[in-house]
Amino acid sequence: MNKKSPSNQSLHIIFAALIISIIGHFVLFFGVPLFAPSLPIASSDDFIIKTDLVPEPLRKITMAKTFKRKASISNVAGIENTSTSSAEQGGSIDQQGQAFRLPESGTLYYDAYVDGQKYQTGELSWVTEGNQYRLYVNIPYAFIGPFVFESSGSVDSYGLAPTIYWTQRGTNAPRYSRFDRDEKGGGKMFFSEKPDFTPDLLPGTQDRFSLMFQFASLLNGDGSIDEAGSIRALPVVDYNTLDMWQFKSFGETVSDDVPSLGKATLRRYTLIQRESDPYKRQVDIWLAKDLEWLPGRIRSQEASGRVLELVFKQKNPIKPS
């Protein structure tokens, strides 16, 4: 009887490992409904614009000045943002406008779900020094490595002003959006995905992650804004687009939508889509009062139908440098 040589057994083990890896990639990117049941989501038809809406107009901010210290934050991409002004929270901003206060720095941990299937715990690092901020999100995934997102920049007359927004999936090359701002908050956008696409940068423009912290800072400044049914519009940058996003507010409610907080005061915002929008993206954000209005829960359904959800687990403070 012929026996398999050790080398043949090694080849079989390697082949089996490759098959498992391929199946893992397939499950992660395409989904297997039988094994990953979807979480319930609101009907997208309820949040499609069929008539013109009148959103709250963009307003300048009045920055709360709560501390003084030297500001210097370097992001993972190697870009350093430094303040040459007063280094108070808000820097040299001294104007009349909507109250605005940055949440304190901290590391937040979230349970990550893809199509209802729980993955490893994700980490969100929020760091502010003077009038600068850095937001770094790391969501681990098996087989292909982590999903990483970073937004960093400063605070200008309209609130958070990202300088760079980039993302990377596993070992894929990073994709970035660069904000080339002028002294009035405008300027030009540059995208790694579309080098020839350089749209005008509108004052108050956010990226997909900074927008949540813009909302949090506005609520920290004045918790009475954005009553139920109101619409807040802001320009938002994605990987290769710059569009006006409009969010419907559900106002302040007490619920257990963030289980780790128990019965908690939350503000829910839902992205409203235009009927002609080809992306059909659904985004829901629950901001938690007990977390200085930082995200308690984030749910995003992409055009493909894939649902990514982050649910707050715990927060650790970051000691000032």
In total, the number of strands is: 20
The residue fraction in helices comes out at 10-25%
Look at the helices and sheets and give the structural class: mainly beta
Q: End-to-end span in angstroms?
A: 70 Å
N to C succession of SSEs:
HEEEEEEEEEEEEEEHEEEEEE
Specify the number of helices. Answer: 2
Largest sheet: 16 strands, mixed
- What portion of residues belong to β-strands? 35-45%
Average pLDDT works out at: 79
Radius of gyration: 22 Å
Quick one: overall form? globular
Low-confidence stretches: 25-45, 67-72, 78-91
Descriptive keywords:
single chain, 321 residues, mainly beta, 16-stranded mixed β-sheet, 2 helices, 20 strands, globular
Task: Report on this structure.
This protein is mainly beta and 321 residues long. It is built from 2 helices and 20 strands. It has helices spanning 6-30, 210-221, and strands at residues 48-49, 61-63, 72-74, 80-82, 98-100, 106-114, 117-129, 132-139, 147-156, 159-169, 175-181, 187-191, 200-201, 206-207, 231-237, 242-255, 264-274, 282-288, 294-301, 307-317. Strand 18 (282-288) and strand 19 (294-301) form a beta hairpin.
Short précis:
The protein is mainly beta and 321 residues long. It has 2 helices and 20 strands. It is 12% helix and 43% strand.
Q: Could you outline the blueprint of secondary structure elements for this entry?
A:
Blueprint: H1 6-30, E1 48-49, E2 61-63, E3 72-74, E4 80-82, E5 98-100, E6 106-114, E7 117-129, E8 132-139, E9 147-156, E10 159-169, E11 175-181, E12 187-191, E13 200-201, E14 206-207, H2 210-221, E15 231-237, E16 242-255, E17 264-274, E18 282-288, E19 294-301, E20 307-317
